[in-house]
Amino acid sequence: MERVRIVEVGPRDGLQNEAQAIPTATKLELIARLVAAGCQTIEATAFVSPKWVPQMADHDAVLRALQHEDVAYPVLTPNLKGFEAAVSAGVREIAVFAAASETFSQRNINCSIAESLARFAPVMEAAGQAGVKVRGYVSCALGCPYEGEIAPQAVARVAQDLTHMGCYEISLGDTIGVGVPKRVKALIACVTELVAVEKLAGHFHDTYGMGAANAWAAYQEGVRVFDASVAGLGGCPYAKGASGNVATEDLVWMFERSGVETGIDLRKLVDCAVWMSSQLGRPPASRVARALQG
Question: pTM here?
Fold first, then answer.
């Protein structure tokens, strides 16, 4: 039977823009429930400045509290300072971000795409010396809030650059959720001219309800790794009215019903989605959680 790997990004990507301060204990409980549901890769936190992302200020406490034996806990480290702090906390895998849009890169991190990649060079070198795996993200892979459509060739070049720098996997992110299956297939076809499909992952947002459909389109093109966020947590601050990442339970339901294994217990995952949503004072965003909860 075919199998996909789900990278659960709720604890980091899903929670980072929440306005209310979420206790460290709640974040750790969320991660524990995700592990109990069968999630094997969970993006736990981000080693970024609390000034810019207050929700991730407890990154050190979160990572130090986690058990690493059977689960991977990658964390976001945008610079060498963050990487060094993550290493001291016991990190085994990190993630770095680059954009396929020059305008997005300038407005988000105040530098060009080329400059952002240059900033990662010392991080990549240090990670190699420390034996830490590095995953790469490419933002705005299917559209930019400032430039609109992004040429697939631009995405492919950034993905290739990250691969050459040492990233073992490249996650293609539909940051504002404007992708549709036809464009997803065209994107994968273009990127795989430069990067092997086995190294690609899909990171889709559900802004227009296309998250699961886009994941399936990427699956049909050979992608076997997908990022998702329990309960559909998260959202893009650059897209008006944007919902969050595609919900993990929506992807698990779709793949399992299609005969594709995920290794995740859907019932436990839905229970986790309902619990976390209750902590935030709102219902789950995902269709599957609402259907099974009812």
Answer: 0.96
